[in-house]
Amino acid sequence: MIDIAKLNRIEEQHAELADASRALFERYKRRTASAKEKHGLAVRLADAVFQNLPLTGLADYTNEQLQAVRIDILTLTSARDDQRVAVQLLADFNGRQKALNESAALLHNLKQYANVRDE
Amino acid sequence: MTLQKIQSIRTAIAALQAERSQLLTYKLSRAEVRAQIESRVSAWVETAREEAASNLRDMALGRGAHHLVAEVSEASRSFAATANLAPLLAAFGGEKKVVAHLLADIDTVPEGLDATAKAARMDAIAAELDALEREEEQLIEASEAAGEPIARRVDSRPEIVLGVPDVVPAKPYVKQSGEPREALNSPERLVAVAAPGVGVYSPR
Predict the structure, then answer these.
(1) For B142-198, what is each residue's pLDDT tens digit?
(2) Contact call for residues B172 and B145 (beta carbons, < 8 A)
(3) Are A106 and B163 a contacting pair at CB < 8 A?
(4) B110 contact A CB<8A
């Protein structure tokens, strides 16, 4: 006699695994998009900031100009951190995909067994 | 702790599966291969002796003799023609020498088991795998119940994962004197009756 309740439970676990995997991939996509956006912003800001910074007359640099440089560096740092997180998320996702594929293969076997036994 | 226990069970399962795979891959044991070689060489020597005797008799009868002629098979679409030199080589080289040459690398063949021992070992492996896989599944279930799910092996056997202990057969019903008829439909008796559809898997 087949334990149908258990089969249903395993199917639910597989669905949860798939959901978690999808969520991870969404986080990876969001982080990648964030990193890209911040990087673009930092580049544009750098263009604007450094074009306005005179190569001579360091003493004349205003606090606003220096603050803009600081913000640019912070934006770039944040973009880099986002990208690092995205790389880690992608590695985690790939790791989970293996587990998900194995879970799918096992579930397929279990269903086939249940159906054959049923016939 | 449970995970460690499961890991050690899985290691044992993998070892048994590998052993079974090797037993299935190699059809003959080393001893059986050795015996077959010895038997073949002996047969070749005998064939060569019979050929030589036959040729001698043909000569005595005034017929043409074909000493030291190797038998050549016909070529086919799949196979090229081959000359069977084995009887001649065995006859000239000597049975022991040819056997020694053919068995020079016999150590590269796994020791293996003969057919009877192999069948017995296969049965033992199957029984050991059954016990180990059931224990593994019990540990996985216990871990799951404790809120720490552990992924099953991708090659877990469905009959182990989905198997349920055999239902203990109910004792035959004996109506007690003075017992009302309604007792026949008591919940205790009906609980053993399977509901329609039980045992049929349908995707949800």
Answers:
(1) 999 999 989 999 999 999 999 855 434 334 444 555 555 544 444 444 443 334 444
(2) no
(3) no
(4) no
pLDDT band at B1 (very low <50, low <70, confident <90, very high): confident
pLDDT confidence of residue B189: 42
Tokens of A45: 């800001």
- Mean pLDDT for all residues in chain A: 92
**Does the distance separating the beta carbons of A11 and B154 come in below 8 Å?**
no
Closest residue in B to A110 (Cα–Cα): B158
Interchain pair A4, B149: CB under 8 A: no
- Is B12 in contact with B55 (CB distance < 8 Å)? no
Three-state DSSP at B195 gives coil
Can you give the pLDDT at residue B68? 82
| Alpha helices in B26-114, H assignment, sequence order | 30-60, 86-93, 95-102
- C-alpha distances out from residue B31 to B36, B113, B118, Å: 9, 8, 13
Contact B201 A7 (CB under 8 A): yes
Whether A8 sits inside 8 A of B204 (CB atoms) is yes
In this complex, which of A6, A13, A103 lies closest to B162 when CB atoms are compared? A6
Q: Among residues 14-73 of chain A, which lie with CB inside 8 Å of chain B?
A: none
- Find, in chain A, the residue whose alpha carbon is nearest to that of B166: A1
Packing angle of the helix pair B95-102, B30-60 (nearest 10 deg): 140
- H/E segment holding residue A14: helix A4-52
Q: What are phi and psi of B163, to 5 degrees?
A: -70, 145
- pLDDT value of residue B102: 95
CA angle (A82 as vertex; A81, A86 as ends), nearest 5: 120
CA distance A98 to B68: 65
pLDDT of B195 reads 41
Could you report the per-residue pLDDT of B25-72, keeping only the tens digit for each? Answer: 988 999 999 999 999 999 999 999 999 999 999 999 998 878 888 878
